[in-house]
């Protein structure tokens, strides 16, 4: 009970600081995923067309995934120095695998009959991608972004060790003081909350982007 | 219209899919390519819209070599229908139909009108325009698939077993509908199928292929009358050659002219009595002008005998009929393939004029096997 009161007091006294760190934390995660998406989606599309390359790309991104987060941050720190940019770079690397894999799967899973009828009707390669493959793969790609974002939020917490700030900073502070349970919670709860909300939000978006009958379903439910 | 000249397709590794094919197709002609699987019929079709490139030889459309054309423009000017239908699940029916017009940058208004117009052509309600493909039945989907190929009004349409994945009854209906459509629109069709009945029914000329080569080209009647060799004969099947005997042409000639029928306002007990007297288990129902309305059978009477009392309340109105001037071979095929016990025969105004049962088919087969021999002295 004491802890809860302490927690409450911490928030009451430091709400603007917590909010700032929350915001910073979210931005770091989002930028990492965003930059990764800019690279990973085109790469995913590319290797979906050139399947023999997919092996190499997947082995490479898999290797990245096996590096422990702290080690990755430390190595990047040697090159890029302290601060949030280094964390964003790490998140970028970790996000590559889920996004590339899902883009690859999404594009590969588009029914060959649809590709053939699109080609047969005279779509250019780009039109085929824009009008058929991407819309149909979009929900799978979104699922990749979702995974990446949730992983990103958790890894960004560790970023506090290399001075990037974020909610991790609050947690570390809690571990450094005696009886810091409340402070640890003050950092951990918003982090978890952010991950859950991001997951739900992206999940909702993913469903919205499912190809097919969603619009008419809405109409039907409106009618009833 | 379409000229295929010395065309061959050799795949990497030297496999010859199509070997030196020559064919002239006239405007408005319905050509069916047929043959066992792997005979090169689909490959030949895809050479025309360059989904597969020819290795040797040339194809001309309206005198223009397709090699010299932009491949994307070429495909937009040719309709294309595939067996798997290939409607885009994320697009509405309207968007699916008007896809090629969209690629051709027609204004939205015009695309919309075109989609509506086409939907009317197959008697589908305009409310379908806003639906999505997975809300439609297989038959309806392939109707849309065909409309999509017609959307930009191409003179030539390629079809790769378009009705192959449908159930026999839907397929039959769609074939009739499509044949009418093709004749009224004057399109040139190149149609690939492995179903001989379909080819005979639809095509003006049939191209029979084997191992990448053309074995025989001719109208269905020519091919049935004079199969070029044993392969064709076997491929056609003996029963079809028999069915095409010239002295038996229309259904009218073989039908039983006195079908057991009952008027719709009769009582059920009357119906049962009539079944017993005539020794049949179902009756055709007509109105006072002898126009066919439906049928009832013994099970339907048994189920409803306590609730209803007159014939029109329980009769089944959904029944398959054949017009009396239909070619015999089409009807025979329908009966045999769809497993029907009988088909009522009607005239143009839907008056019941006769019935063809499986028993009458037995007579035809009997005649064609033994009848000829009796004539030989």
Helix content of chain B: 25-40%
Kindly identify the CATH topology of the largest domain in chain B.
Rossmann fold
Q: So, CATH architecture of the largest domain in chain B?
A: 3-Layer(aba) Sandwich
User: Helix/strand/pairing class of chain A, anyone?
Assistant: mainly alpha
Number of alpha- plus pi-helical segments of chain B: 16
Protein name (chain A): ABC transporter permease
Domain ABC transmembrane type-1 (chain A): 22-202
Family (chain A): Belongs to the binding-protein-dependent transport system permease family. CysTW subfamily.
Main location (chain A): membrane
What order do the helices and strands come in, and which of them pair?
The complex is a heterodimer of chains A (224) and B (377).
Chain A (H helix, E strand, L loop, with lengths): L1 H48 L1 H16 L2 H12 L3 H25 L3 H9 L4 H34 L8 H10 L4 H28 L5 H10 L1
Chain B lengths: L1 E9 L5 E10 L4 E5 L6 H8 L7 E6 L2 E2 L5 H6 L1 E4 L11 H5 L1 H5 L4 H14 L16 H13 L5 E5 L7 H18 L2 E6 L2 H7 L2 E6 L2 E6 L1 H6 L4 H7 L1 H6 L17 E3 L4 H11 L3 E5 L5 E6 H7 L6 H4 L7 E2 L4 H11 L3 E5 L5 E6 H18 L2
Parallel strand pairs in B: 3-8, 3-9, 6-7, 7-8, 11-12, 14-15
Antiparallel strand pairs in B: 1-2, 1-4, 4-5, 9-10, 12-13, 15-16
Provide a descriptive summary of the structure in words.
Chain B: It is a peripheral membrane protein. Chain B: The complex is composed of two ATP-binding proteins (OpuCA), two transmembrane proteins (OpuCB and OpuCD) and a solute-binding protein (OpuCC). Chain B: Belongs to the ABC transporter superfamily. Chain B: One of its GO terms (cellular component) is plasma membrane. The complex is a heterodimer of chains A (224) and B (377). With 224 residues, chain A is mostly helical. Chain A has one domain (2-223): MetI-like (MetI-like fold, Orthogonal Bundle), CATH 1.10.3720.10. Chain A is 86% helix and 0% strand. Chain A is built from nine helices and no strands. Chain A has helices at residues 2-49, 51-66, 69-80, 84-108, 112-120, 125-158, 167-176, 181-208, 214-223. In chain A, helix 7 packs antiparallel against helix 8 (181-208). Chain A is elongated. The model of chain A is unreliable at 213-224 (pLDDT under 50). Chain B folds into two domains: 2-236, P-loop containing nucleotide triphosphate hydrolases (Rossmann fold, 3-Layer(aba) Sandwich), CATH 3.40.50; 251-366, CBS-domain. Chain B has 16 helices and 16 strands. In chain B, the strands form four sheets. Chain B has a six-stranded mixed sheet, sandwiched between helices. Chain B is globular. At the A-B interface, helix 5, helix 6 and helix 9 of A face helix 2 and helix 4 of B.
């Amino acid at each position: 009970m004491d802890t809860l009161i302490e927690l409450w007091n911490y928030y009451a006294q430091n709400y603007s600081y917590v909010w700032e760190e929350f915001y910073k934390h979210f931005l770091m995660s989002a930028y990492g995923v965003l930059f990764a998406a800019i690279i990973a989606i085109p790469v995913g599309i590319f290797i979906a067309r050139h399947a023999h390359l997919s092996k190499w790309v997947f082995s490479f991104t898999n290797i990245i995934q096996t590096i422990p987060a702290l080690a990755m941050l430390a190595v990047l720190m040697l090159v890029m120095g302290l601060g949030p940019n280094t964390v964003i770079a790490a998140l970028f690397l970790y996000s590559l695998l889920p996004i590339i894999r899902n883009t690859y799967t999404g594009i590969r899973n588009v029914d060959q009959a649809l590709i053939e009828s699109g080609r047969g009707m005279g779509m250019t390669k780009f039109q085929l991608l824009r009008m058929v493959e991407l819309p149909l793969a979009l929900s799978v790609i979104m699922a990749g972004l979702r995974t990446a974002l949730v992983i990103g939020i958790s890894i960004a917490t560790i970023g506090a060790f290399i001075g990037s700030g974020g909610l991790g900073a609050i947690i570390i502070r809690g571990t450094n003081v005696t009886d810091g349970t409340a402070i640890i919670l003050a950092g951990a709860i918003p982090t978890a909350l952010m991950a859950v909300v991001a997951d739900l939000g992206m999940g909702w978006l993913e469903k919205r982007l499912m190809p097919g009958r969603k619009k008419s379903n809405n109409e039907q439910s409106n009618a009833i | 219209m379409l000229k295929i000249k010395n065309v061959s397709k050799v795949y990497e590794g030297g496999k010859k899919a199509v070997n030196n094919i020559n064919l002239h197709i006239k405007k408005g002609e319905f050509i069916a390519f047929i043959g066992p699987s792997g005979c090169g019929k689909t490959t030949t079709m895809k050479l025309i819209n360059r989904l597969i490139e020819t290795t040797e030889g040339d194809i001309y459309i309206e005198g223009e070599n397709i090699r010299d054309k932009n491949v994307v423009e070429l495909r937009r000017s040719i309709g294309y229908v595939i067996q798997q239908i290939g409607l885009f699940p994320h697009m509405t029916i309207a968007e699916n139909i008007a896809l090629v017009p969209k690629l051709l940058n027609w204004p939205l208004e015009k695309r919309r009108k075109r989609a509506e117009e086409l939907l009317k052509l197959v008697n589908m309600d305009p409310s379908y325009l806003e639906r999505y493909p997975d809300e439609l039945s297989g038959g309806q989907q392939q109707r849309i698939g065909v409309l999509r190929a017609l959307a930009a009004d191409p003179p030539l349409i390629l079809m790769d077993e378009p009705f192959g994945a449908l159930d026999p009854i839907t397929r039959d209906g769609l074939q009739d509908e499509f044949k009418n459509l093709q004749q009224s629109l004057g399109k040139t069709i190149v149609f690939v199928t492995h179903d001989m009945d379909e080819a005979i029914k639809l095509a003006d000329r049939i191209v029979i292929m084997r191992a990448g080569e053309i074995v025989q080209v001719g109208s269905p009647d020519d091919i049935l009358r004079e199969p070029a060799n044993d392969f064709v004969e076997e491929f056609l099947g003996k029963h079809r050659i028999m069915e095409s005997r010239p002295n038996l042409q229309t259904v009218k000639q073989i039908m039983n002219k006195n079908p057991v029928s009952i008027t719709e306002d009769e009582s059920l007990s009357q119906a049962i009595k009539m079944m017993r007297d005539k020794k049949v288990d179902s009756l055709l129902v007509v109105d006072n002008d002898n126009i066919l309305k439906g049928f009832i059978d013994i099970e339907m009477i048994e189920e409803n005998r306590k609730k209803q009392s007159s014939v029109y309340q329980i009769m089944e109105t959904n029944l398959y009929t054949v017009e009396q001037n239909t070619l015999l071979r089409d009807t025979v095929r329908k009966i045999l393939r769809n497993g029907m016990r009988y088909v009522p025969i009607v005239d143009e105004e839907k008056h019941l004029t006769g019935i063809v049962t499986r028993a009458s088919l037995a007579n035809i087969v009997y005649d064609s096997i033994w009848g000829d021999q009796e004539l030989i002295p």
